[in-house]
Amino acid sequence: MLNDAAANTVALSFEDGPDPVWTRRILASLDASGTRATFFVASPRAVVWPEVIEEIADAGHEIGLHCGRHLVHPSSSEASVRQDAEVALSVLSSQNVEVRLWLPPCGQVAPFSGDLARRLGLQLVSWTIDPIGDASGSIDGVIDRVTTELNPGSIIRAHDGFDDGARAAAACELSLEMIRPLTDHLEARGYEAVPVGEIASRVLDLTVDPSVAEPPLPV
User: Fold this and answer.
1) Which pairs from 49-58 meet CB under 8 Å and 24+ separation?
2) Is residue 185 part of a domain?
3) Which terminus of the chain is less hemmed in, N or C, by CB atoms within 10 Å?
């Protein structure tokens, strides 16, 4: 049941950062639109750019765990995923970041993922709208897709970091370009964009029921 406080809220989530260029550009755009979001970070990048992690937190955004080595759970062992998550959490803890949410790579979980998340004190989540897709579309197409799929409690996927590759860079570019028109569009429809943790009544909790997550597009 959707409570009154969450009835007009959706969430913006960014993943695969931090990045000294893209994350900062996205932070500036979010600040200009008065929007807070959730950044699901990769710990090796947090080690290299701790100052960007600090900038995310100082701007009032939520920080969640994405991964260390980008291990896709169904094709990895429980031991390797556990070690990867523990190392990543240790890195973020050393940077005074308290993590509650875990967005696994590709949004995919294995039979062990839920129990592992509980033991780590985390809630597994995923997105409900992936408007960037394969990063080959236009900004108008991105907004159209959000419009078609938007519901109260939607979690919109975007990127603020990437490995080398033109498609990944294009995903960051589209993520940046969509912020202002998206937030304007949401406001016009009576929605407010908030961090994922603030729509707890509708957060996509893979720990409880992994079947509710739509299969994400390949990354």
Assistant:
1) 49/18, 49/19, 49/20, 49/23, 50/95, 52/17, 52/18, 52/19, 52/20, 52/23, 52/24, 53/18, 53/92, 53/95, 53/97, 54/95, 55/23, 55/24, 55/27, 56/18, 56/23, 56/27, 57/96, 57/97
2) yes
3) N
**Looking at the domain assignment, is residue 201 inside a domain?**
yes
* Number of domains, the chain: 1
Please write the tens of the pLDDT for every residue from 76-115. Answer: 999 999 999 999 999 999 999 999 999 999 999 999 999 9
- Tell me the C-alpha to C-alpha distance, in Å, between residue 146 and each of 26, 45, 81: 18, 29, 32
Does residue 126 form part of some domain? yes
Residue with tokens 């304007």: 184
For residue 27, is it within any domain? Answer: yes
Respond yes or no on whether the N-terminal peptide bond of residue 20 is cis (omega within 30° of 0): no
For the cut 50, the answer to whether the pLDDT of residue 214 exceeds it is: no
